[in-house]
Specification:
Blueprint (H helix, E strand, L loop, with lengths): L2 E5 L9 H16 L6 E6 L4 H10 L5 E4 L4 H10 L9 E3 L12 H4 L2 E5 L4 H4 L6 H17 L2 E4 L2 H8 L8 E3 L14 H8 L6 E4 L8 H7 L10 E4 L3 E2 L2 E2 H7 L7 E5 L3 H9 L3 E4 L8 H8 L4 E4 L2 H7 L4 E3 L7 H13 L2 H15 L4 H14 L1
């Protein structure tokens, strides 16, 4: 029986992050859309029986798990050096660059390996990653250039940017993500909103104080009158490195109580917080896809976002794009864009409709079917 083996290891990482969510949602739909007489297996690093069982519970329909003898860190290092063999032949799909990229014969033995590159941050903004992270991603990208049968990227913007650093020829395929089916409102959203202490009106963003995410200029924008003293809720941690939300707010001349970290929210809590936001702001300076924008669109929330190429591509004029050049003027431009929505209810409603329509252009089922087609084409 033809088998597609998906590397699901990011789901058990200490901090799964966006790629962990991407891996889970894509794998669920690969299982759901598997052609007749095809099955899905997972590939995972050495772990405990409880972790293996949790994976099987979260991915119902998975035919099995191939468990490597190496721990996650050891596996990443070994694959970087090309020291281990893949778990048999056949089709292997990696939702990241963590993949057994080595010499193989796709024509004669049917082995094929597809890897995924979500963004070009290791090249454009290496200071936002650890030195090890930058070197690992660049090394794995070079192995992918040499050994991968295809590379999946989330947007045409990433495809164009990636071509500036590595030549993959015609092997690049654009397959985006979508809103998780798990992000749904709870049975009593009003009660949960009260428990979360949500204000009546507020700005919302998702991210950290990592410079690339643009949260500092957004907080600086709050000092301007166009934002009408609305509080900013941040889905993400209170601090990043030596930076702290309270400190950044004070330095920007913004009352610290106007900036509130919500931490990391459950799917249902995220739905509640998203659905009630007055305006969602995503000021990120560099993105590969920008899933939070689509999540906000799906709840009909008007969106202000930067003009990072991937965000412009994904939003497709359903949000208000703000130019990033001239960093000193970025906070003011963000404030003006936010103010244009706060003072124009008709515009907010119109963008809410546009965004809702735009969010329907993305579905995990469609992404999974395109992945199956990619492997069939290979």
């Amino acid at each position: 029986m033809p088998t597609l083996r998906v590397i699901v290891d990011q789901m058990i990482a200490p901090v799964p992050g966006g790629i962990g969510r991407y891996t889970e949602d894509l794998t669920r739909q690969l299982i759901a859309t598997a052609p007749r007489d095809c099955e899905i297996e997972g590939i995972v690093s050495s772990s405990s029986p409880d972790v293996y069982q949790d994976l099987l519970d979260r991915l119902p329909g998975l035919a099995g798990l191939y468990k490597t003898t190496l721990s996650r860190r050891e596996l990443a290092r070994a694959w970087q050096l090309g020291l281990t063999t893949s778990p048999g032949g056949g089709m292997i799909h990696a939702p990241s660059l963590l993949a057994p990229l080595r010499s193989h014969d796709r024509v004669n033995d049917g082995t094929q390996v597809v890897a995924t590159i979500h963004d070009v941050v290791p090249w454009t903004h290496p200071e936002t990653l650890t030195k090890h992270g930058v070197s690992w991603h660049k090394a794995m990208a070079k192995r992918a250039r040499k050994h991968a049968d295809a590379i999946v990227v989330p947007t045409h913007a990433v495809a164009a940017q990636l071509a500036e650093y590595l030549d993959f020829g015609d092997r690049v395929r654009v397959i985006g993500g979508a809103v998780s089916s798990q992000i749904v409102l709870p049975p009593d959203p009003d009660a949960r909103a009260d428990e979360l202490g949500l204000p009546t009106n507020y700005l919302l963003t998702v991210g950290t104080l990592e410079p690339r995410k643009g949260l500092v200029p957004l907080i600086q924008a709050l000092a301007r009158p166009e934002t009408h003293d609305l509080p900013l809720l941040v889905v993400g941690p209170q601090g990043w490195g030596d930076l702290d939300l309270t400190q950044v707010a004070q330095e920007a001349g913004v009352a610290p109580e106007r900036v509130r970290s919500m931490g990391f929210l459950s799917d249902t809590d995220l739905a509640v917080v998203m659905e009630r936001a007055t305006v969602f702001v995503y000021p990120s300076l560099a993105e590969g896809f920008g899933l939070p924008v689509i999540e906000a669109f799906s709840f009909g929330v008007p969106v202000v976002h930067s003009d990072a190429p991937a965000l412009v591509e994904v939003a497709d004029n359903a949000g208000v794009a703000v130019a990033r050049e001239d960093a000193a003027g970025y906070p003011e431009r963000l404030a003006v864009a936010i103010g244009s929505l706060l003072t124009d209810r008709a515009l907010r409603e119109r963008l809410g409709v546009f965004g809702s329509d735009r969010s329907r252009a993305f579905s995990w089922r469609d992404s999974a079917e395109r992945v199956w087609q990619l492997h069939a084409d290979l």
